[in-house]
Amino acid sequence: MIILRLEAERLHRYRVLRLADLPERGIIGLSGDNESGKSAIGEIICFALFGRTFALAGERIGKLVHWGAGEGAVTLRFRVKGKSYEVSRHLARDGAQSARLIQLDAPAEPLARAEGVNQAISRLVGFGFDDYVETCYLAQREIASPHPHSPAVRAMVGAVPLVTCAARLGEEIRQAEADLALRRERQQALRAEEAQLAPGAGRIEALERQLAEIDERSGRLAERLRALQAAGDEYSSAYRRHRSHTARRALAGLFANVALLAVLALGALWAMIHYQPDTWPMPVIIAWLESLIAETGLKAHGVILAIAFLFGGFLFLSWLWLGLLALGLRRRRAWARRLAQELDRLDGLEPLPARLGEAPGHGGVAAGDVEPGGPGAGPRFDGDLEVFVDRPDVERRARLRQRILLLEAAVSEVCSALEHEVVWLKRDMERLGAWRTAAQNGLARLRSDGQRHRDLTRELVQLEQEIAAAEDWIATRRLAHELLEGAAREMSRRFSGGLRDMVSRALPRFTEGHYEFLEVDEDLQIRVYSSDKRNLLDLDEISSGTQRQIMLALRLGLSQELVARRVRDDQFVFLDEPFAFFDSRRLRGALKNLSELGGDLTQYWVVAQRFPQDAPIGLEIACGQHPDTLTHGFPEVA
Amino acid sequence: MIKLPFSRKPTEEASVKSSVAFAAYCEAERERRRDTTAGLDEQRFQAAMDLALERLRAYEAKEEDRS
Question: How far apart are CA A311 and CA A539, in angstroms?
Fold first, then answer.
């Protein structure tokens, strides 16, 4: 970009500023005393290009308007790659501005207007304001080392896409790592829960066996209880009947004996009447009998035979009664034996082992399964095979059994003993019920835990897969990030190397041979080799004047790089008092070196208070000759 | 002929795209890593390189659209 013409009205200290016929190569010197408006030209050019100056931006740009005026305007004509353009801006004191960019070949169709002008200029000239002030425009301020991380320098390095992509990847990696940390926390929590829920080998099966045993024992006890109660009822009935058994048997025996005697006597009488009717006292007896039955017409031996049959029948009935009594006795004894057998079976019942009250693997019934003071809270176990100690003692039960077998035990006594046994049985059954509840609860919990454990295992497997995928994802992005940063460093290193070579070639010219070359690292930190001291020195080890010259050389090198990378065309540079405090001899040498730098920087605007007579300047514009007017290449303004 | 400190760069040197420079760097880096004791996970390296290249090309395309 080469400046061809500059026109401004009511801007900065100028009511009128008109510069034309400007040389496109070489040095344009702007000279004059302090406050003569030299730097104002640089600021007006900057404003024309980017709508702001180095110091004034935003609403404050209104301060650029000439004092006493309400608004100002500037038109800058320039050439880029063989085409001429003109940018015009109007500025009000309140900072409001308008802008237009045209191509001189087609002035009726502006390339951009208003805020679009800045973007259009940046696209056209290849750089924006930040790049401009870092390189081609040296405002009147302390020359400092260009910041290696400034957008301009990074853009020049060409590493901006790499750094930007690396930064985005870094952000993605940070986000993914945060997510991964959350997943790992979740994994740890799940593992801890899984360890707590880990089922012991066969615990469910053991508990199921235990529950089955409890059910079997409970069923056995219930069966015994029912049988005992039935046997008790039968015994009671048998005992009550047995009390009248002796009397009934005696009566039946008596009847049988009487009937037997009667039958025998009547049989003998009939035989005597039938076979020995004449033998004494038979005739008397026959006469007596016939007198008794004379009116009936029956015969005596027939009547006796009938009576004998009658007693025979009675005898038969008595014997039948006796037989029935014997059968009843046998049945009652069978009932008594049954009760005794039931009692024997109770004795044969195994005591409840304490292990049934223990949940497998937990060392006991889980807390809460049996209510304190509830059915299961009765007598305690003292050991695994300990027996409950509240049963009737064995001797008492043996004696009772013997008396029961003999049907001698009273119903009240038997009922009392049976009630005791029933209480004992029921308590065992309640205890078994409590254990069953505990076992069922434990089993339900184990099954629930097992289900939860399976769910946890499934979730853990899925989580581990996700973590592995995330780790793989992160590892790939870390490597990509590393490669991008490595490439950016490599580009910085190459850029620094190229810059170093370029600036080192210019350095001796600017330092009159005192310093020969620079070391510029990838962060643009500079060390300079002193020919006098034969050593590499840090910048703070050399004089401020030389520092300024080195920084100027570096800035020009950066400008050259910027133009070479972005514009690839002739470029102007505006240097506001770069050689302040130089004596005329050194200033002359510096200007000569400047004009001989070569490369793409062709038009140098250099501000200085005075230029030596024989300085290699293409055009010197003396500022301050008129208070608020400066014209070159135009007719003088009155 | 006196060599001037600054010189114009050839157009092709000045206009190397970041993605091209990155691809060249990656190839050199791949070779370098192959020679290290840690070795090189070719698959991951290629995946990382492809990912970064994809991002870079997208960035460059976006920048070209903007300009």
Answer: 160
Mean pLDDT of chain A: 82
Q: What ipTM was assigned to the predicted interfaces of this complex?
A: 0.90
- CA–CA dist B62, A165 (Å, integer): 13
In whole angstroms, what is the distance from residue A550 CA to residue A558 CA?
12
In angstroms, how far is CA A392 from the centroid of its own chain? 63
- State the residue for tokens 């409840």: A352
Distance CA(A485)–CA(A487), nearest Å, equals: 5
Q: Give the whole-angstrom CA distance, residue A264 versus residue A102.
A: 167
The Cα of A474 is separated from the nearest Cα of chain B by a number of Å equal to 10
Best probe of the B interface among A124, A135, A162, by most B CBs < 10 A, is A162
Tokens of A539: 């910048």
Q: Which two tokens stand for residue A543?
A: 């004089």
Look at A164 and B19 and tell me if their CB atoms are within 8 Å: no
CA A110/CA A117 separation, integer angstroms: 10
Shortest Cα distance from B40 to chain A (angstroms)? 11
- Give A433: exposed, middle or buried? Use CB within 10 Å, 0-12, 13-18, 19+: middle
Q: Is the Cβ pair B56, A161 closer than 8 Å?
A: yes
Distance of CA A169 to the CA centre of its chain: 23
Instruction: Give per-residue pLDDT as tens, A279-335.
Output: 888 888 888 888 888 888 888 888 888 999 999 999 999 999 999 999 999 999 999
Mutate to test the interface with A, among B2, B18, B50 (most CBs of A within 10 A): B18
Backbone angles phi, psi at B36, to 5 degrees: -85, 160
Dihedral Cα A60, A61, A62, A67, nearest 10 deg: 100
Chains A–B, number of C-beta pairs less than 8 Å apart? 100
The pLDDT-based confidence of A161 (bands split at 50, 70, 90) is confident
Report pLDDT for A390. 57
Q: Is the pLDDT of residue A596 over 80?
A: no
- For the cut 90, the answer to whether the pLDDT of residue A171 exceeds it is yes
Measure A21 CA to nearest chain B CA, in Å: 26
Domain boundaries, chain B: 16-66
Size of chain B in residues: 67
Taking CA atoms, A94 is separated from A63, A88, A97, A310, A384, in Å, by 8, 18, 9, 158, 101
Instruction: Give rounded-to-5 percent helix, strand, coil for chain A.
Output: 60, 15, 25
Among A415, A419, A251, A405, smallest CA distance to A332 is for: A405
Q: Is the pLDDT of residue B21 over 60?
A: yes
Which chain A residues are Cβ-neighbours of B3 within 8 angstroms?
505
Q: Do A483 and B9 touch (CB under 8 A)?
A: no
Scanning the structure block, which residue is given the tokens 């308007």?
A65
Domains plus CATH for chain A?
2-145+525-632 (3.40.50.300)
Determine the Cα–Cα distance for residues A533 and A537; give it in Å rounded to an integer. Answer: 9
Angle, helices A203-243/A300-348, rounded to nearest 10 degrees: 150
Q: Which two tokens stand for residue A484?
A: 């991008």
- Mean pLDDT for B23-27 is 93
- Cβ atoms of A271 and A450 within 8 Å: the answer is no
Q: Determine the pLDDT at residue A524.
A: 61
Min Cα–Cα distance to chain A from B2, Å: 10
Cα angle, residue B59 at apex, residues B54 and B61 outer, rounded to 5°: 95
Average pLDDT over residues B2-13: 54
Label residues A488-510 b or e (16+ Cβ within 10 Å = b).
bbbbbeebbebbbebbbbbbbbb
Per 3-state DSSP, chain B is made up of helix, strand and coil in percentages (nearest 5) of 70, 0, 30
Q: What is the pLDDT of residue A599?
A: 75
